Each structure stands twice: as C-alpha cells, then as structure tokens.
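User: Hey, quick favor. My workstation is busy. Could you predict this chain's structure for me?
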Amino acid sequence: MTAVRALRAQQKAIPVIGFLNGTSPDAAAPFVAAFRQGLNESGYVDGQNAAIEYRFGEGRDDRLPALVADLVGRNVDVIVAAGGAPLARRRKALPRRSRSSLPASATRSHSAW
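Assistant: No problem, here it is.
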C-alpha cells in the first residue's frame, strides 16, 4: 500500500483502480491475472502509469461494505468488482454521494464462491 501512495504522490494524474473480489487472493488469481493482462493490453501498467488497490472478501459477503468503503475512502477512480457476485451488493455499500460519481464495473463468472 505504501508503494501506491508513493506513486500517487509522484504522479497525481495516474488512475487509481480499486479491484474488489469476494474470494481470497489465491482463489482470485485468475481474475487478477486476466485483469492485469487487459490493462497491459490497453497500455496501463500497475506501478508505472496506473495503480491498483486490491481488496478481497475471503468468501465473507459481510466484509464487502467495509472493503468498498475503504476503497472509496482512498479516492479510487473506479472500482472493478470481479469474481461472480453481483455488483449491486457492492454498490449498495457505497456512500450515497459516491454512487453516482464513482464508476464501477463488474464481471460475471460461472464458478461459485
């Protein structure tokens, strides 16, 4: 996390992406790899011209509101929710003022978590 803050301080213009997954980091590894590959193919490299803040629910939906609130508090530019859970569960956790101003995206998966 310190590297993200340092990068942000050096280059204010870089986008900060919140990556949210309801599983563990190990279980989310395929999503993270695909996400990073997509970013790279679009010209974004974590730590160079973009910063990614990762949050994982460890299979506990009750943790999601706090994780979303943490990302919002860190002023991310967008939240990407990956791993199959509906975005609506995460979006409801956003403070009302952020729901209309913070872009959010979700992916779907056929795998259960």
